[in-house]
Amino acid sequence: MTSIAEEDYKFVRESGLITELIDSEKLLPETVLDPAEHIELDDNAVYVLEHPRLEAVSYPYEWSFPLLKSAALHQLEILLESLKYGVTLSDATAYNIQFKGVRPFFIDHLSFRKYEAGEYWGGHKQFCDQFLNPLLLRSLLGVPHNSWYRGSLEGISSEELSPLLKWRHKLKIGVLTHVVLQAKLQTRAKVKTVSKKALARPLPLKSLQHILEGLRSHITSLSPKDKEKSVWENYTEEHSYDDQETLEKKNFIAEFAQAIHAPVAWDLGCNTGEYSQVLLENGINYVVGFDYDQGALEQAYARADANNLNLLPLFFDAANPSPDQGWAQLERAGFKTRTNAKAMIALAFIHHLSIARNIPLAALVSWLVRIAPNGVIEFVPKEDPMVQELLRFRKDIFPDYNESHFQETLEKSASIVKKKVISKSGRVLYWYSVDS
Question: Dihedral through CA 99, CA 145, CA 126, CA 41, nearest 10?
Fold first, then answer.
């Protein structure tokens, strides 16, 4: 931190706010280091702060609806608490929120600064763009925010969202105030028709708090519009193996977890988080789950929340993972760059990519093995009902999709520790390890 922010930082620290937020586990802890010992970072630094390393970094375009909603409410909670200490937030970027499991916490200590009497919250528009509007897109229109948000890293502006809404949407007080009027204000600002007198009018603190509390209440009431069952959220009940086979599958994953005992594991195609929970109950400290199905992700969130699991379920299209992007493609690290797992499971996963997305089996297996040095991959044969369902409306153009080709490919990159047939249809679990 340079001298520009020194005065605000001192004020905030002396207010007691930082200690309160850290103690209540709402803010990432910090350690103040000696700047003289870290001159390589910035020779103008007045303070150098060190934070604990995160088990996983995620971005709002990878969050499900409940994760984004939780992050939005946490941002507002941080601001409302700060105002009690005479402190405000200089911005409202969603990238200042990270998760431990599904529990949000704030990470940017330098966003805090002294509150000036009568000031407006400068982060209001950013909050709407990065939190409120993406939530409204799903809540009002039934459209998930992920693809739009990934293509526009600053979120969804009110000017973009407002024309998509019907009049019945716009008449809702929260939408009228924070979307419709916000869009009109931004349009007027572009043509310089907003008066300086209007902008200079002070906003009493109690009025600001009332606005923020109203915004919090509005977001609390939001839920996804598309409540119908999604394609895969009932997969746990509708898969093609019976209770005994499910038990054998869980025992296999439990044995793997106990042997590897990794700090972080990834669950590709995590569905509702059932097998993520098995990992966590058998020696894995933290699991990042990935799935494409919104309904399944919401159930995984509910599972993690109800059981206080160190499980972070993220939206993920394996055929098109998050890339490195932002300024100079360095601001937001992609899926590959963030790979830190020592263990990985991919259960009932590869047939969706190999058959439904036309990805060659050999390339897919090689990609999976590069993700983690230890893993379990489930091979689902063509005879399985779920694969037959994928082939129901298309020609079978996959002669290489068979177990012998799968095993041959896997053995080119790793050693097979153990394999087990776990269903009458011939599903097989392969436990692999990459030789160090």
Answer: 50
